[in-house]
Amino acid sequence: MGTLYLVRHGQASFGADDYDKLSALGHRQSVRLGEYFAQKGIRFDAVLAGTLRRHLETLAGIREGMQHEGEHLPWEGLNEYDSEAVIATVHPDKLQRPTSPEMYRAHFRLLREGLAKWMAGMVAPQGMPSYREFVDGVAGALDHVRARHHGGNVLIVSSGGPIATAVGQVLGTGSETVIELNLRIRNTSITEFAFTPKRHMLVSYNAIPHLEHPDYASWVTYS
Q1: DSSP secondary structure, 106-158, as one string
Q2: Cα-Cα-Cα-Cα dihedral of 195, 160, 206, 5, to 10°?
Q3: Three-point CA angle 201, 3, 55, nearest 5°
Q4: Radius of gyration of the chain measured on its C-alpha atoms
Q5: CATH 3.40.50.1240 residue window(s) in the chain
Q6: d(Cα 126, Cα 143) in Å, to the nearest integer?
Q7: pTM
Q8: Confidence class of residue 93 from pLDDT cuts 50, 70 and 90?
């Protein structure tokens, strides 16, 4: 039996002109996760990652913390959906940069509504695949892990949407549950699957053992 660790990227630059890069805290979170893996003696037989900048920067931070170089397999099917394109399907006017709790809540209300309609096939966000194609990209990564790495430790670095989708597939949940899982996943959290050549099994979801010490209480983020 193998173990698959699905890691969400570190804190990105929510509200900035370029979301797709880690904040300074996001880099520290990633390095700290790598230190945790090293302290636990965890090494990876294979690594897959989405191709977004925040995925690659998170993986680089993990490797820095582990003090271990290595190759990885780029996997576009692990890339996140475009949240702005999703929101535009239900709110055509460009949103202002959120500066208050109320504006953040409004942003995520619209995102939840847009995701539900995209998943149901009711809207087609500009520049994005269909939801079925998105799911197939995630499923392809899981199939690859089962087929190629039985008995090994595998790391996937991705985003909240693909990780929530993977959990939903393993548990057989509906789209509403996938959305709730997605919107609650923390930066650099670990979701763990055990796997055989036939199936994946959920062991834990959204865990942050590397940030449990009180010194890291302010490092827990969601964006």
Answers
A1: HHHHHHHHHHHHHHTTS---TT---HHHHHHHHHHHHHHHHHH-TTSEEEEEE
A2: 30
A3: 100
A4: 17
A5: 2-80+129-219
A6: 28
A7: 0.94
A8: confident
Which amino acid belongs to residue 54?
Answer: R
Single out the residue of 47, 108, 94 nearest to residue 73, CA to CA.
47
CA dist 6 and 78 (Å) reads 10
Look up residue 217 and give its amino acid: A
Would you state the structure tokens that stand for residue 53, as one six-digit string?
């900048």
- 2-80+129-219 CATH: 3.40.50.1240
**Interval 159-198: pLDDT, tens:** 999 999 999 999 999 999 999 999 999 999 999 999 999 9
Q: How many residues does the chain have?
A: 223
Contact 222, 200 (CB under 8 A): no
With cut-offs at 50, 70 and 90, classify the pLDDT of residue 97.
confident
Angstrom distances, CA of residue 99 to CA of 15, 36, 78, 146: 8, 33, 30, 43
Q: 86 to each of 94, 119, 151, 158, 165, how far by Cα in Å?
A: 12, 10, 38, 19, 16
